[in-house]
Amino acid sequence: MSGKRVLLCDDEIHILKAAEFKIRRAGHNVECVGDGELAWEAIQRQLPDVIVTDCQMPRLDGIGLCRRVRSHEHTRHLPMLMLTAKGYELSHEDIVEQLGVLRVVAKPFSPRELLRMVDEILETGRVNPAHASAE
Amino acid sequence: MYSRFAPSTNRFTAASAVFCSASALAWASTWSFSPASWLERLAWLGGSTLVAAAVVAWLVRSWSSERRLVSHYLSDLATATEDGSSGGPAAVDLPALLRRSAWGPSLEAISAALSKCYDRTEAAEMARTALEIRARRATEEQERTNQILAHLSDPVLVVDSYDELVLANNSASQLLHLDEKSTEQRAINRLIECEKLVEVLTETRRRPNATTRTEEIELRDEEGSSRWFSVTASNMAQANDATESPAAGSIGAVAVMRDVTSQKASQKRHAEFVSAVSHEMKTPLAGIKAYVELLADGDAEDEETREEFLNVINSQADRLQRLIDNMLNLARIEAGVVKVDRQHRALNEILEEAASVVQPSAEKKNITLVSDLSPMYLGVLVDRDMLLQAAINLLSNAIKYTREGGKVTLRSRMNDGEVQLEVEDTGVGLAPEDCKRVFEKFYRVKKDSDMAPGTGLGLPLVKHIIEDVHNGQINVTSRLGEGSTFTVTLPSAGRLG
């Protein structure tokens, strides 16, 4: 085990399981939750090393979770990846620039590619804390 | 009219006559005085006097008659000149006697001059009448155009070459609150708050060549509600003025505004629908792709894991299939492509068949499916396949959102002359805000989305079948955490035969 914690957040159970399977087999610790509120609770319990979140989820969606993470001092630095099946109405560039998301990954995605990105983020360290509060 | 005894007057003749009379009188009076010649002298004197008197009388009478003739003629000329129906002065004949007299040339000249004046007056009168007719027609045309503009539902604005408002129909006045503005203020940029609209009008007006420009603008009312208008502005050039340089600009511009708010909303809904469809299709596809790749990469190290992955792929493929089928179904029915075959049917027969279709899925979750159908014959005029689909969708929905061990009840009855079917469950229930939206395409209650795979099209399809195709009604009542009841009402078709 690498000792690195990866928080996976998606309301689609099968997608969550596929990503968890791939990342866990690579030796990382993985925690899975089904919506943004559960993700925030998990973050409060223990800070993950990287967060992979879906965009469209019940209760608190991916964008709401990003804003909350970026608006708190102790979580602002956490690197985040966003998965999304949304089309034209979601600007990937805006998400990256305004919310400090490192990468927006369109669904259907490749679990292999997702693992590669997670490994790259874990190797490069934390996100620049200069991103302003977005909430 | 003219006396047939009137002689031609001649001053020479008159003078001669008087001279002779006077000479005779003078000769008679210069004789030497003798008794014998007194009588002769008296006779000559009397005779001369009589002749002279007769001549004078005749002269006087002649002059008077002539004067009367001239007076009559001039009077007739005047009447004919004034009274156009008589044919004018040219229709008045100059008597031959007057023509031969000293008056003749003058009277002919007067007649000719009056005829010319009469003809000119006639021509002027006709021209005036023609102009009046044209003016009246132009006024009527103008009035008709104004009425048309006033009653147009599309707002119309016209500005002149100084960018001042010269015309705004009723719709424009209402939309832009022009009636509330000062009647002295005509500058368009002071009358209209929407800068974009002002810019479209003024810029078009300034173009030297014939220009038509179309733009979409957004206007907001007092409540802040947005309305979209397609504005078509055209400039108006001077007619047939070749001397006017192209740089002089046009004499004005006209803008016609068409409300495209509903069109925009429809486009937005369509775009949202396409986005929602895309999102819904990508989700099962994402599952299929992810597990295929896991299998391909050899991540499933044991048979059990491989089987699990394959089952997921299969179920997601089924989900995609259902989504596509439901979408096509809904699209075909909404478009009217599907032929609706309305026949007299017994509602209970259709409901019993629907119950038998969903029974296996109810048993899988240990849910009790109860049929509480009316013992009465409930006749309805429906497309059997469509109503069966609707009933299956309602029952499937109820089973999906009811936890294991729960209960789903199917009822039918007659109510106030209408036929009703009802599906009641003891499931998770719906919040009031969800009740309002549950019939929207792709709407799924977020918190319950993990309970059952769905496309979000089942209930919209039911609504369309019941309300749009069969003129019925569907509504839902629910208590969160306790269950929901979907009620369908259809017109009764009575009993066959």
- Mean pLDDT across all amino acids of chain B: 85
Strand order, largest beta sheet of chain B: 2-1-5-4-3
Secondary structure tally, helices of chain A: 5
Mean pLDDT of chain A: 85
Largest interface: A-B, 27 and 25 residues
What is the CA-atom radius of gyration of chain A, in angstroms? 13 Å
Order of SSEs of chain B, N→C? HHHHEEHHHEEEHHEHEEHEEHHEE
Largest sheet entry of chain B: 5 strands, antiparallel
Low-confidence stretches of chain A: 127-135
Q: How many strands appear in the DSSP assignment of chain B?
A: 12
Kindly describe this structure.
The complex is a heterodimer of chains A (135) and B (497). Chain A is an alpha/beta fold and 135 residues long. Helices cover 41% and strands 18% of the residues of chain A. A five-stranded parallel β-sheet of chain A has the order 2-1-3-4-5, sandwiched between helices. Chain A is globular, with a radius of gyration of 13 Å. With 497 residues, chain B is an alpha+beta fold. Chain B has four domains: 1-150; 152-238 and 249-259, Beta-Lactamase, CATH 3.30.450; 266-335, Signal transduction histidine kinase, dimerisation/phosphotransfer (DHp) domain (Helix Hairpins), CATH 1.10.287.130; 342-491, Heat Shock Protein 90. Chain B has helices at 11-30, 35-82, 96-100, 104-151, 170-176, 188-191, 195-206, 261-296, 303-335, 347-364, 384-400, 432-437, 458-469; strands at 156-160, 165-168, 212-220, 226-236, 252-259, 342-346, 368-372, 379-383, 407-415, 418-425, 473-479, 483-491. In chain B, helix 1 (11-30) runs antiparallel to helix 2 (35-82), helix 10 (347-364) runs parallel beside helix 11 and helix 11 packs antiparallel against helix 13. The A-B interface holds A 11-15, 17-19, 21-22, 25, 34, 56-59, 85-89, 107-112 and B 271-272, 274-275, 278-279, 282-283, 285-291, 293-294, 297, 299, 312, 316, 446-447, 449-450.
